[in-house]
Amino acid sequence: MEENQAVQYLESLIGQTLRVHATDTRIFVGTFKCTDSARNIILASTYEYRFPSPSAIQHAATDAENQDSGIAAESQNVKVNMTSRFIGLVVVPGQHITKIELEETPQQSRVRETLRKS
Question: Does the structure show a pLDDT above 80 at 46?
């Protein structure tokens, strides 16, 4: 991709909701405001999501095992929610970004598909 095309693409993402994955497994979901040459990303109205700790998973597994003592423990699936918190404006350092995803509503997805076909 040429530099001009890359700039235009980044400009088209301004104001869109991005999901940014970090090296420490955190996920930031917020409105893309800008980036810089070091690939730092600034997000506004951001939520931070974290995977549950091993102790929280163990606690949930123990609770499930106690409730369903008739089911074999190895065949049991346990669901544990990610934790989240609102952090507002955040700078995600480029060196710690592992993946960036555009979060679209179903309506935005349909519009994008319609534009591709025409």
Answer: yes
Structure tokens at 16: 């869109």
Question: pTM, whole model, 2 decimals?
Answer: 0.76
Q: Annotate the chain with three-state secondary structure.
A: CCHHHHHHHHHHHCCCEEEEEECCCCEEEEEEEEECCCCCEEEEEEEEEECCCHHHHHHHHHHHHHHCCCCCHHHCCCCCCCEEEEEEEEEECHHHEEEEEECCCHHHHHHHHHHHHC
Tell me the C-alpha distance between 97 and 35, whole Å: 12
The answer to whether the CB of 20 falls within 8 A of the CB of 92 is yes
**What's domain 3-117's architecture?**
Roll (2.30)
